Amino acid sequence: MKKICMAGLLLGLSSVAHSAVPINMNCGMSVKAFFTPLIQGRLINPKPFHVTPGSSLNQFRPKAFVGLTAFDLPVTTVVGFTDEPLLFTKVAEVTQDVYGVVVREGIGNVQAHLSSLGVPNARIFRVDAKATLILCKGEMQ
Q: Are strands 73-81 and 50-51 parallel, antiparallel or unpaired?
């Protein structure tokens, strides 16, 4: 049995964990168009890990070793809701389709970064000192 195998495996996993996979998030698409490549590419877990009671906002975790990014920022959670029972859990009456991501960056830096990229339609919300929610209204298509 070779002792090198474990070291090679660890090196391989660390390179996979650090490869960034950008999410197409332009705040001008439908919720379905946003989520379809994430589900088909197996980039997120297909079942939400949490559903916000008042808004039915479904939260999905990226798959292990997938380094998702949005607007060049590291993504920790993908969120969204539309009236699609195969993907989303509904726990409240919802009046708006939305999609977005939680990124690992403070709100001030996210706001400046999105402004520099010219992304006026995104709404941002502070999650905590080091995390920000970037939310887009889902377009009907």
A: unpaired
The values of phi and psi at residue 80, to 5°, are: 170, 170
Q: Which residues of 44-57 are buried (b: 16+ CB within 10 A; e: fewer)?
A: beeebeebeeebbb
**69 to 12, 14, 22: CA distances (angstroms):** 20, 17, 5
**For residue 54, what pLDDT is reported?**
86
Q: What is the pTM of this model?
A: 0.83
pLDDT digits (tens, 9 = 90+) for 62-98: 998 889 999 999 999 999 999 888 889 998 887 789 9
Residue whose C-alpha is closest to residue 78's, from 106, 50, 40: 50
The strand pairing partners of 22, in sequence order, are 69
* Tokens representing residue 16 in the block: 């996979």
Count CB-CB contacts under 10 A for residue 36. Answer: 13
